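A reminder before we start the practical. When you read a complex entry, don't treat the lines as separate problems. The point of joint prediction is that each chain is placed relative to the others, so the output describes one connected object in space. Small molecules and nucleic acid strands, if listed, are placed in the same frame. In the example below there are two entries. Take a minute to note the order of the lines before looking further.
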Amino acid sequence: MTKEKNFFAQKRGRILAPLCVLGLLIAVWWAVVVYTRSAIFPTPWQVVTGTLELVEDGTLWDHIGSSLMRVGAGFLLAITVAIPLGLWIGRMDAAWVTLNPLFQILRPISPIAWIPLAILWFGVGNASPIFLIFIASVFPMIVQTAAGVHTIERRYLRAAENFGVSRAKLYRQVIIPAVLPEIIVGMRITLGVAWLVVVAAEMIALRSGLGYLIMDSRNAGNRYDLVVAAMIIIGVIGLMLDGITRLLERLKSVRWRYGR
Amino acid sequence: MDANVNAQLNAKIVVDDIRKSFETRKGELPVVGGISLAIGEGEFVAIVGPSGCGKSTLMKMLCGFERPDSGSVMIDGQVRRGPSPKGILISQHGSVFPWLNVQQNLMFGLDGISEAEKARLADHYTAMVGLKGFEKSYPHELSGGMLKRVEIARALVMKPEILYMDEPFSALDALMNLKMRMELLRILGEERHTVLLITHDVEEAVHLADRIVVLSPRPTTIQATFEVDLPHPRKMSSPEAQALKEAVLRELGL
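Here is the predicted structure of the whole assembly.
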């Protein structure tokens, strides 16, 4: 009985405490705007009405849809390349030794630095941000997957060898499931980065997306209410994306890795 | 002499003067210094030795994960070149796959039969080690003793001719250790296998084995061999068992 109570108390605390901080933040924001009589910086209420405006004319969904589509395309492309490549490199020591320095050089280059090249190669259509997201996602994902292969404990590989299973079965039932927790962690990190990048990429060019919305609102008449609205929406969607990948960590076949 | 050669020909496992050294920064470190041994079909041989004497290296060579520098290991008259499902290793730390449930673990090594048949065999051996009802459980939901049972069942389901056990029960508490020994003897009563057990627990060796081989410190060689002529079920408190235990311990310098 008390245990149940504790559970609900805990759950409430986990939602209530952050909500309190958020409420406080909004109150301070509001007070400061009113106190300084700022003509440009919006109050929270103006942000809400601005958002409603975008909802009513339907452009908000277009912007969100475009951004998500670009992230989705770039991210999926990256994982389809990175996971098989990472598994292969992780298994082949020669490939790891040869390619790892290259990845370590390419990885710290901010995707933003690729923007001029992206525009040069792909123009200002959808292909550019998708390419940038691909670049941002693919290297961390490869490295994470290969590192995951390296951490597979020897005893499991020995057991598989002992049972004399085929190569296909070795990958399907030992290597991939053993690396899956690492892959999911990699996907979580990478998706966060991809979301960061898409917004930045959209600020440069294009005619849609949340990044475009921010730049366009500022350029077309200092609509800072819409700027802040877009920022908040970006944050909330980022939180949701993280939540979705967190759900993957609950899969029964990977729970062994993330504590009991 | 003739009888000896004959025994060697009929033996399941013939180990002929195997040696192994490792390269270290300080130079060559000889670990196994020439071991010869013949093990009969269905025989249970325990190998005991001081810790760090090279027991595990010896076991790795016996089950084919490492090649000896010289000498050979023959199984059924064939020189062993690598691991095979005919001889399954049960290691100290366990190697039950944590991402597969109990049934999937047992089905892992099975090949060439239908899925339904695999599942039937898996469930049969799960029940044999006393884990009926846990077929769909994942390893992290089981206790250490239960995991050991899964590991043994996963070896048995392969119908191996040889079981290699490398300190299989040393991670368990004393009570569970004893319980697992009884279970192992019961299972071997149902299905006879040739068993090679490596242990540092002399009582475990006396309790289980037909023959006890005592190893010397590194580079290890066979220092003494004891036949265990006690009928099962063995009473460890009996004077014969105690005397044997003391004799083995004396060989180990205690």
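Discuss with your neighbour: The mean pLDDT of chain B is 88. What might explain this?
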